[in-house]
Amino acid sequence: MYYREIKIQTQCHGKTPKDAASVRATHPIPAACGIYYFEVKIVSKGRDGYMGIGLSAQGVNMNRLPGWDKHSYGYHGDDGHSFCSSGTGQPYGPTFTTGDVIGCCVNLINNTCFYTKNGHSLGMEKLGLQTPGEVVDANFGQHPFVFDIEDYMREWRTKIQAQIDRFPIGDREGEWQTMIQKMVSSYLVHHGYCATAEAFARSTDQTVLEELASIKNRQRIQKLVLAGRMGEAIETTQQLYPSLLERNPNLLFALKVRQFIEMVNGTDSEVRCLGGHSPKSQDSYPVSPRSFSSPSMSPSHGMNIHNLATGKGSSTHFSGFESSCSNGVISNKAHQSYCHSKHTTTSLNVPELNNINVSRSQQVNSYTSNDVDMETDHYSNGVAETSSNGFLNGSSKHDHEMEECDTEMEVDSSQLRRQLCGGSQAAIERMIHFGRELQAMSEQLRRECGKNTANKKMLKDAFSLLAYSDPWSSPVGNQLDPIQREPVCSVLNSAILETHNLPKQPPLALAMGQASQCLGLMARSGIGSCAFATVEDYLH
Amino acid sequence: MACVLEAPLRMSVLSEVTASSRHYVDRLFDLDPQKVLQGVIDMKNAVIGNNKQKANLIVLGAVPRLLYLLQQETSSTELRTECAVVLGSLAMGTENNVKSLLDCHIIPALLQGLLSPDLKFIEACLRCLRTIFISPVTPEDLLYTDATVISHLMALLSRSRYTQEYICQIFSHCCKLQHWHSCGFKSLPQPLLCANGPDHQTILFNHGAVQNIAHLLVSTSYKVRMQALKCFSVLAFENPQVSMTLVNVSVDGELLPQIFVKMLQRDKPIEMQLTSAKCLTSMCRAGAIRTDDSCIVLKTLPCLVRMCSKERLLEERVEGAETLAYLIETDVELQRIASITDHLIVMLADYFKYPSSVSAITDIKRLDHDLKHAHELRQAAFKLYASLGANDEDIRKKIIETENMMDRIVNGLSESSIKVRLAAVRCLHSLSRSVQQLRTSFQDHAVWKPLMKVLQNAPNEILVVASSTLCNLLLEFSPSKEPILESGAIELLCSLTQSENLALRVNGIWALMNMAFQAEQKIKSDILRGLSTEQLFQLLSDSDVNVLMKTLGLLRNLLSTRPHIDHIMSTHGKQIMQAVTLILEGEHNIEVKEQTLCILANIADGTTAKELIMTNDDILQKIKYYMSHSNAKLQLAAMFCISNLIWNEEEGSQERQDKLRDMGIVDILHKLSQSSDPNLCDKAKTALQQYLA
C-alpha cells in the first residue's frame, strides 16, 4: 500500500498557536510501504493562518503544530519554514494559504521527506528518525493527487531494481555461473528429473552428486505417490530403503493415511485390482486443476522445471510449487502480493510466518503483536524443517488453496461421477479393514511416541470422508484432490534424500525461501526498499 | 618526463607494428578476390579497439584501397560490406582518423553505396556514415551537397531497425544549431547565431522528416526510439514550423506530446527524459503548447529541475539547466514555479563548486573531468539564474541572497571563457531590473567596476548584454551612476552608438538617454561633445526606429530646465532646429513625431531659445499644422509648444501672441476649445486665457 485517501473534517478552534488542534491519522505509516504520500487541501486558513502539515510519532502533543515537538516534523503555512523537532524552523519553501494543495511524501528507503505545493515538489529534507512516524493533520479528499506521486514511485522502483540487478556478485570469473548451474542441477536431481539433470550436467560440464540409479528410484516412488498408488509407493520405499519408514513412524503413518484416502478415491492399487480395473490402463491422475506442460515429468514439478528452463510460467504454477516445498514462503508471499496489488491493508503482516497454521482469513489485517520469534526460527519453520512438520503445514495450507480451486473441481466431478472405492463392494471392505488397521496403528503410535494432535486430526479428517454419501463434494472432500498428493510426495522425497545425506531441500528452493524471508525481515525492520522488490519479479 | 624516456622504445615497437600492418594492406592487393576478402576480414579483426593499428593502416594507405574495393562494381557484396565495416571501425578511432577518411572523400563513396539493393551493405555504409557524421570534425553540410541524398535516406528509414537508428542519428547530428539560446530580454534583438541550422531543419522537414520519423518513437528498439527522439529535439529547436507540426502528429492514436510526456517519466533512462523534455520545451517556446499546460507545468518543468540535481552527471546538469532556462525565459509563472521547485535556487549554487577541493586531492581523473565541465556548469547556472530572475522581484531577492551570489557574478564577469562571461552578464542584467537591488547589493559589490571592464574590447554578443545592463545602472535612482560616469562611460557609450550592430547602437543611445535624465549641465555638455553633432544627425537618420526614438529621448532629456535649454540651443541651436524640421517633414510614425514636437515644446520653454522657433516660419507652420492633425496626441504636443510660446509672464510674450494670432492660431484654439477631447479642450482654454490677460 502506498497511500490512502481518508476524509477527515478538520475543525480547529485555536486562537493562538498554543491552542492549535491537530488531526492525526489513526493508522501509522507502515515502514514496508516504502513510499508514503498524502495531500491536504487548505479549504480555509482560518483567522491567523497558523497551519502545519507533517509527521509525528504517537503521543506527541496534539495541541501544537507538527514540528515543534520531539519526534515530529512539519511544514508551516505562515512562514514557509520547515520544523524538525524544534521550535525554530529552517527556511524551506513558499508560504501556503487558502486554496493551496499541500502534500507530504515520506520516503522510507532513504529516510527523507519532501513537501509539495499544488503538485510541485519543494525539495528533499533529511528525516532523523529510523522508525517512521504517523500522519498528522490529514484532510484528504477522494480526488487524484495533484502531485504525480506515481511517477516518483516509478523512479524508486526502477532504482531499487537497478540496485538489485547491479548487486556485485563474486568477482572471480565463472564462479557465479558455476554456482547457478549447481543450483539448477541440484534442483533437477532433487525432484528426480534424471534425463534433464543428466543433459544439463553434460552441457554444463558438472558432476551429479547422486547416482543415476538412486535418482531413478526416487522418481519411481514419486510417480507412484502422485498417481495415487500409495500402497505400491510404500512397498517400493520399504524395498529400496528398508529402514527409512521404520525410523520415521510418523511419516509411515502419514503415508498410510494418504493410502486410505486414495482407497476412498478408488485409485490405490489395493482397491483397484478389487474393483476390476486394470491398474495400468487407467490414468490415475487424470484431472488436475492446473495445466502441466511436460507430460513426461511428475506433474507439479514438471511445471517448475518449465519455469526454470524456458522462462515461462504463470503464477498459478508457482503457488503449486511453493506449497510443496515451503510454507513460510507462501504465507509471506500471499500477504505481500495482497499488499501490493490491492493497496488497501495498513501493514505488511508478519505474524503468519511464525504461526504457520493460521488460516488465511486471519492473516489479513491482523496487525497484532504475534511476532515474537527470532529470525532463526522463521527460517527453520518456514523452510528447513519441512520434513518434520511440513506435511501438516502443507495440508492445512492446501485446505485454503482448495477453496479457490473449487469451481474447477466441480466441473471435474460432474463429468466423472465417482463412486466410493471405485464402486466395488470388495474394495469397500478392504478399505474398511485398512481403516481399522490405521486406527490401531494410530493408537500404537500414541502409546509409543505420545500424543500427536496433528496425526489425530489427519486421521479424523480422513475418516470423515466416510460420513458423506458423496465424499468428493463433502466439506472434507478436498483431501481427495490429486493435488494433495504433492506435499506427501515432497516429504517422502526429502526423507529419502536425508538418508543419503543429501539436502532435504534443493538449494534453489532454499535460496528463494531465504530471499522471501529477508524481504519480510526488512519490512519488519522498517527498511522501506522491500516494498519495491518481490521474489516473483525474478522468477520469470 | 616519462614520455621522453619512452620515446625510443615506442619507435621500435611502432616499426614492428608497422611491419605487421603492412602485411594487412598488402593482402588487399591480392589477385584472388577470395584472398582479398579474407584479408579484409582479418584486418577487421585486427583493428577493433586498437587505435594504434588504425593509425598505422591509415598511414599505410589502406583507406583508398578499401574505398576502391567498396566502389568496384565487380567486388562481391560480401567484400564491399566488409570494406564498409573496416572503414567504420577506422572512423571510430581518433578525430585524426576521421579527418583522413574525409580527405579520401569517403562520404560520397558511402552515399553511393546506399543505392545498392543489398541491405547488409547499406547498413554497413550507414553505420560508417553515422560514425563519421557524429564526429565534431565533419562539416554537417556534406550531407546536403546532393539533393537526392535526403530523400533516399528517408526511403531507407523503412528498411530495418539499424537503418532507422543510424539515419536518425545522422539527421540529429547534421542539423545542429550551436547550443546557444537566443536572448529574450527586452531591448535585445534575437540574433540568429547559426545560419545553417534553420536551413537544415527546413530541408529535413520538407522531406517529410516528421512523418517518417514519428512512428519510430514507438519502435520496440530502445536505440531507435532514442535516436528518433533526439532527431525531434534537434528539428524542433527554435523552429516554430516544426514545433507546430509536431503537436498535431499522432502515432497509434496518441499525440506526440503525450508520447513525449511518457518518455519523461522518472523510470525512463535519464537521456530519454532529458531529450523529451527538450522537445516539449521547444514546442512550448514555439507556442505550440501553452505555458500553463499541465504537460509543461507538471511534467516538463519538474523533470528539468530534477536534471539539475546533484545526482545527475555534470553533462546532464548543464543541459538540464540550459533547457530549463530556455523554457521559463519569458513566462513569469513558470519562473515562479521553478523557483520553488526542489530548492532550485540553492541547488544551482552547487554548480559553482567544481572542481571541488575533494576532487583535486583524491583523484586526478575526476579533477580533469570536473575541470572540463566547470565552465559549462557555471555558465549554465548563470543562464538559469538570469531566466529565473527575469521578471519577479522576490525571485531576484532570493537569488541574490544565495551564498556568495554577487561575488560569483563579479568573478564570472572576468572569467576567460567568453561563454561564462556572457552568461554572467546576462544574469547581472536580469538582476539589474530590480530597483531595490540596484540600490543595495549592486552598490555594495561595486558591480559597475567589472562591468565597465567587460565593456572594453568585448565581443559584440557580450557588449549587447553588458551595455543593456549598464543602461539599468545609469537610471537616475541608481547609486552607481556617479562612479560609472567618472570612469569614462560617456566616451564608451558614444562609441557604441557608432557600432554596426544595431543592438549596440540602441543600447548606447539608450544608456546616454538615461544618463542625461535630470543630469547636471556638465554631463549634458559632455554627452553632446562626446557624441558630436554629426553623430547626432547620423542617429536621427538611423533606419531603425528604436535608435531614432532613443536619440529623440536623449535630446529631450538634454533640453530640460531653462538654463540648460538656452545654453544648448545657443551652441547647437541651428543643427537641432534642422534636425527637428527634417523629422517633422519625414515619413515617421506618430510616436516619433510626438517625441519631436515635445522637443520643440522644450525648446519653446527656454528664454532665448524661444526665438529660434519664433523666427522660423517654417517650424511655426508645422506646429500649426499639427494642431489640426487627426491624431490627438500630436495635437496635444503641438499645443504644448504654443502654450510655452504665448505664456504671459515672460518677456516678449505680447509680440509672440500677436504673431501667432496673425497666423490664425487663435482661430484654431477656439475650435479646439470646443473639442470633445477634455485634454485638448482644457489646454486650448488655458491658452486662450493667456490672450485675455
UniProtKB/TrEMBL annotation, chain A:
Region (Disordered): 276-300
Compositional bias of kind Low complexity: 284-300
InterPro entries: B30.2/SPRY (IPR001870), B30.2/SPRY_sf (IPR043136), ConA-like_dom_sf (IPR013320), CRA_dom (IPR013144), CTLH/CRA (IPR024964), CTLH_C (IPR006595), LisH (IPR006594), SPRY_dom (IPR003877)
B30.2/SPRY domain mapped to chain residues: 1-169
Domain CTLH: 214-271
SMART domains according to UniProt: CRA, CTLH, LisH, SPRY
Pfam families per record: CTLH, LisH, SPRY
Residue intervals passing through the bilayer: none
PANTHER family xrefs: RAN BINDING PROTEIN 9-RELATED
Entry's family note: Belongs to the RANBP9/10 family.
Name under which the protein is recorded: RAN binding protein 9
Gene source species: Calidris pygmaea (Spoon-billed sandpiper)
TrEMBL record, chain B:
Keyword Repeat: yes
Signal peptide: none
UniProt keyword list: Cytoplasm, Nucleus, Repeat
PROSITE patterns: ARM_REPEAT
Coarse class of the protein's main subcellular location: cytoplasm
SUPFAM superfamilies referenced in this protein's UniProt entry, alphabetically: ARM repeat (SSF48371)
Source organism superkingdom: Eukaryota
ARM repeats: 61-97
GO BP term, example: proteasome-mediated ubiquitin-dependent protein catabolic process
InterPro entries with a match to the protein in the record: ARM-like, ARM-type_fold, Armadillo, ARMC8/Vid28
Name of this protein: Armadillo repeat-containing protein 8
Residue runs in coiled coils: none
Organism in which the protein naturally occurs: Calidris pygmaea
Location in or out of the cell: Cytoplasm; Nucleus
GO cellular component: cytoplasm; GID complex; nucleus
